Amino acid sequence: MIDTILFDLDGTLLPLDNEKFTKIYFEEMGRKFHDLMDPRQLGKYIWTATEVMVNNLEPRYNEEVFMEKFGQLIKTENLPIYQQRFDEFYDQGFLKVRDSVVESPEMQKSVKVLKEKGYRLAIATNPLFPRKAIYHRIEWAGFKPADFEYVSFYEQNQYCKPQIQYYQEVLQAINQSPEKCMMVGNDVQEDLIAGTLGLKTFLITNFLIHRTQEPIQSTYQGRYPDFLKFVEGLEAVK
User: Fold this and answer.
1) Which residue range is the domain that position 165 belongs to?
2) 53-75 burial, b if ≥16 CB within 10 A, otherwise e?
3) Could you tell me if 191 and 88 lie in one domain?
4) Is the pLDDT of residue 78 over 90?
5) Which of 77, 86, 183, 189 is most exposed, with the fewest beta carbons within 10 Å of its own?
6) Global pTM?
């Protein structure tokens, strides 16, 4: 019997317009760094460093991998200045990204029901962002970070989705076996790969992301109301 639910964030617990999110994010980032770098060049460097972080398979913290590559790209010894700007950005300009998200009453109720039934809950979002950015988004979804016993973020995690090592890392952190867990997410490639470890999977289709033509293999799938109905039908954890 499963007793632990891992949730993706963007497009799962947090409905969002991904195109609008990206547009606002890079516009505000460009404003923050306008005196240091051309916004278009900055965007290219961020994407490049992020790609290196995602593909990293060494046991190194995501923040370290990202900043190392970013520092190489900007070719300056002033990386600490950029790091300080990034930190300030997530307290300032990043907050405008909220215009691209809404709340899901069904997912809010689902989490409430699961907590009442005694399930362990964790946020297994792709740790591409610092803790403060992910905490902002948890709150925008209508929750508190304390509602979940574990939250992934790039200062803490050493791998990213869709690397299977990411899910192994999360399971180790919460001291749980895959057979007792379910991964809930909207991204076929990044979230359903958890199933190869033995986790059950529930694909949320409201904001479905599927990058290939391969058949979708998930234990369950449905929209927000379907997930709520599924949760209401689960037995309480003894």
Assistant:
1) 4-16+102-232
2) bbebeeeebbbebbbbbbbebbe
3) no
4) no
5) 77
6) 0.95
